[in-house]
């Protein structure tokens, strides 16, 4: 597995916008917050551009900037500005040899899921599912500490723990070992039937989503089930599902009902309510590294790190 180097204060973080744009003042606030944490910051051109209203530059521009950040010897880690929409457009434009030959910490979540999958499967790169630059100025202390820990240590990360007020819950008891893969459910469902379809064989599959009505979550979980993604997985970890509630308070399954209806029958060790995703707390975890899942005792333990 290719791994980037752990970073320390004084190192350079390159910020890219591979998906949607943000306002310029938010970009500058993000830069100030990262600098206040002790890092140098190189802002990519995409951080200041928009294309079609919902993209941070055209696809070729966004892909080329990713190449440039990986090839830039002064850049020690790459942090995505935000998610939104747009990363699937880049998958056929990226040079995965460039990425594999210049491994660096790569951090993001949500729409960045498509890049996590492609980097893992085509560049053999371990990556970080975690908060992005635009959130850094207002990031809560727990999430901030978790992110900085993942970025700055080469030691095994150990047990991933929720803050005390949030309980990790058991869906299916049992234990499993494997690499962690996954991310946002919507993006993962969108990879199916493409060359970038997620590989879950013998993996621990992580899923989260936001603002999807239960019937949409049902549709996508069913799609993954039909594609064999649950049957092939060694274990399953479910993060947060913010605002995934019925519209207009209609009578409906909850997402927890759907976990029991669709995922539990596969009898894979499964936990849920780990505070990873679009919630106020967003714990950073590595993808592409080995972990032990002890669902019976509500424990996910990372036995190596994403950084070398």
TrEMBL record:
Annotated LD-carboxypeptidase N-terminal domain residues: 13-130
InterPro entries: Carboxypeptidase_A_C_sf, Class_I_gatase-like, LdcA_N, Peptidase_S66_N, Peptidase_S66C, S66_fam
One Gene Ontology MF term: carboxypeptidase activity
Domain LD-carboxypeptidase C-terminal: 177-293
Active site: 110, 208, 278
Cited CDD domains: Peptidase_S66
Record-linked Pfam families: Peptidase_S66 (PF02016), Peptidase_S66C (PF17676)
Keywords of the record: Carboxypeptidase, Hydrolase, Protease, Serine protease
GO biological process, one term: proteolysis
Protein family according to the UniProt entry: Belongs to the peptidase S66 family.
Protein name as catalogued: LD-carboxypeptidase
